[in-house]
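Sample intake sheet
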Amino acid sequence: MIARFRKFFSDLGETFWVIPGLMVMWGILGAVGSVHLDRTGVVPKWLITSPWLYNGGATGARTLLGAVASSTIGVAGTVFSITIAALSLAAGQMGPRLLRNFTRDRGNQFTLGTFLGTFSFALMVLRSVRTQDEGEFVPHLSLTLSILFPSYRSARWFSSLDTWPGGSTSTR
């Protein structure tokens, strides 16, 4: 019985969609939690009016969240479809192990999960934004997090460029 559980968890760990799926769930739960914090008034008024949090209106919030959601899903779809196409062609010459190694790679799983988690976070926050006609509600903390997630991911990507072949290692 223990051997079956070990085999199940080993097989589960090698699948490509487990980590991205969990990160999507974290994005959804994070959005629900941050919107709840915005609704309950935990964020003080002085912080909402400060330049540290997004303090625009509902129309700007919808536009911002739409841009975040569409750009993250667009980048994820483009990057991974091109990568899978190139790997499929290369696997024909080098063998199916190449594609299997790509899908098992945790970095690829976390990258896709980050894009999809950010997308789901932005969509969940977007559905909570209300304009003046609907009883205005702008989740300031959630919008700030929607800006910070892609910014953090971009900064991580740029910081990893010096580790690529031919990249500079003098900054380490």
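Comment: The first helix runs from residue 2 to 14. The chain has a mean pLDDT of 83.
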